[in-house]
Amino acid sequence: MTTIPNLPNLAPELLDMPTLDKLEPVGDMHHPPRILLLYGSLRERSFSRFLTFEAARILEHFGADVKIFDPMELPMVGSVPETHPKVVELRELCLWSEGQVWCSPERHGAITGVMKNQIDWIPLEQGALRPSQGRTLAVMQVCGGSQSFNVVNTLRLLGRWMRMVTIPNQSSVPMAYKEFDDEGRMRASSYYDRVVDVMEELVKFTLLMRGRTDYLTDRYSERSERSRQAIDRQLQKI
Predict the structure, then answer these.
(1) Which residues, 6 or more positions from 105, have their beta carbon under 8 angstroms from its beta carbon?
(2) Would you place residue 2 in the very low, low, confident or very high pLDDT band (cuts 50, 70, 90)?
(3) 45, 51, 67, 152: least CB-packed within 10 angstroms?
(4) Distances from the Cα of 115 to the Cαs of 10, 52, 173, 185, 200, in angstroms?
(5) pLDDT tens string 102-143
(6) DSSP collapsed to 3 states, the chain
């Protein structure tokens, strides 16, 4: 077997050399961006839900196909089988989506249990499929007091763990009770403008990733592991 000078641990036949040509998109490029939105509160007057619905309206204006998951009656992780209807619904929406928006209130300096429970129900692998890998992600939070970034930072960490492409921009709305009217609509402000920025950027990154996700998430380590497994299967037949 040939080796690469100064890189003896590499298997040349498994190494991909990235080029612009390989980044040419493949597949259907013309359907609307499919965006799933999750929010992290069950309260009747939930500002994270209000912000999520405001973001959905903006996304729809940009031409996206939008779906919002209602976390009400989603059981705690591990308390029911994975065949529970709400779990099935959430996972099917994740597979449907090309991009996602996660929005949580800040509670005790962190995301809510409602938000974390939804993310925990999304598996890294579901058979041969990966419901979150390669999806774009925008993160937002609402604060009861002064502006904080604890929640969006945590959501970024979780998005990275779920192998998602988290966009650079984000939204944090302080004193959220001042930013929404009695009907739950967000008032005009610099915070509203930032939400528009985030949704615009999410659509752009989602279109940028379209048709390239499989190539961008194809990894040398996984190709190497599949190669070793194939060799092991052949040896077992001898």
Answers:
(1) 40, 41, 46, 47, 48, 112, 141, 142, 143, 144, 151, 176
(2) confident
(3) 45
(4) 41, 13, 17, 22, 23
(5) 999 999 999 999 999 999 999 988 877 788 999 999 999 999
(6) CCCECCECCCCHHHCCCCCCHHHCCCCCCCCCCEEEEEECCCCCCCHHHHHHHHHHHHHHHCCCEEEECCCCCCCCCCCCCCCCHHHHHHHHHHHHCCEEEEEEECECCECCHHHHHHHHHCCCCECCECCCCCCEEEEEEECCCCCCCHHHHHHHHHHHHCCCEECCCCEEECCHHHCECCCCCECCCHHHHHHHHHHHHHHHHHHHHCCCHHHHCCCHHHHHHHHHHHHHHHHHHC
Q: Tokens 């190539």 identify what position?
A: 215
Partners of residue 137 on adjacent β-strands: 100, 166
Q: Which two tokens stand for residue 194?
A: 């930032």
In our burial notation (b when 16+ CB lie closer than 10 A, e otherwise), range 86-114 reads bbeebbebbeebbbbbbbbbbbeeebbeb
Do 149 and 172 touch, CB atoms closer than 8 A?
Answer: yes
- Spatial separation of the C-alpha atoms in residues 223 and 214, rounded to whole Å: 13
Mean of pLDDT values over 157-162: 96
Query: Can you tell me the mean pLDDT for 36-51?
Result: 96
